[in-house]
Amino acid sequence: MPRFMKSAAVVLTLLALIPLLVLVKDRVTDSERPRLSLVYDMDDQDKVKTQRASELFADGRSMRPPPAGTVARDEPVGRDHLRDGRIDTLWVETFPAPVTRAMVERGRERYGIYCAPCHGLAGNGDGIVAKRAEALMEGTWVPPSNLADATVRARPVGHLYNTIRHGIRKMPAYGSQIGVDDRWAIVAYVRALQAAQAGSPADLEPADLAALGPPPAPEPAATTTQQ
Ligand code: HEC
């Protein structure tokens, strides 16, 4: 190859690098000028980046606190019993509204969606998630409580409501997924589950008791058979 062609090739190669270098310089520079983009993908626009200072506001904060008096969406205002399940520091022992059959049925449906996976359909703590964790023998797994246990039965309804809303110990909060009315509906259904497991015939109305008929005969004593 003639010498001048070799030099031309070198010069051309160097020239070809210039646009690339300009681009690289432009992308790493911290100048105020917008960066050069090959694909202009809205990467240059006026916006506030997380935790950056702002010149617009007197306090220099770009992340603004909510205006005074802002209330959380879907949370009733100023009704502690309904919203918090407690009045001052005391858990409420009563439902904020009369418990209806429709409410308990709604509670059963929601319980089946949100609680049964861990606590089991009857609330005994044997849901499919708990069974799976046991099968995997996870050393750190805390089993879901048995909702029919005396401790949980003794909890005021406001405490159960709060457990759904904010979670408790290892149990996560469901307040962001379950609204106020549904939380109370689930509490009503949990009470029904507890009554079903810890009730006695004395809890029934006389007419319902009569409809059940005479109590079953005691089990015959077990006999041993030899084979
Ligand atoms: C992801 C699994 C999981 C789900 C889903 C779940 N829980 Fe729990 N729950 C737990 C665990 C685990 C505990 C025990 C926590 C501990 O002892 O650290 C618990 C404890 C409880 C307790 C006992 C709290 C006490 O007073 O000691 C109640 C009541 C309860 N859950 C109700 C519910 C209800 C109602 C739902 C449905 C809205 C629900 N849980 C959904 C895992 C779950």
Task: Write a structural description.
This protein is an all-alpha fold and 227 residues long. The chain is built from 9 helices and 2 strands, in the order H-H-E-E-H-H-H-H-H-H-H. The model has no long low-confidence stretch (mean pLDDT 87). The chain has helices at residues 3-28, 80-84, 101-114, 116-119, 128-136, 150-153, 157-166, 180-198, 206-212; strands at 86-87, 90-91. The longest helix is centred in the N-terminal third of the chain and has 26 residues, at 3-28. It is elongated, with a radius of gyration of 33 Å. The chain starts with a helix and ends in a 15-residue tail after the last helix. The chain has a domain at 80-198: Orthogonal Bundle (Cytochrome Bc1 Complex, Chain D, domain 2). Strand 1 (86-87) and strand 2 (90-91) form a beta hairpin. Helix 7 (157-166) crosses helix 8 (180-198). The chain has a two-stranded antiparallel ribbon. Helices cover 43% and strands 2% of the residues. Bound molecules: heme C.
Task: Characterize this entry briefly.
The chain is mainly α and 227 residues long. Helices cover 43% and strands 2% of the residues.
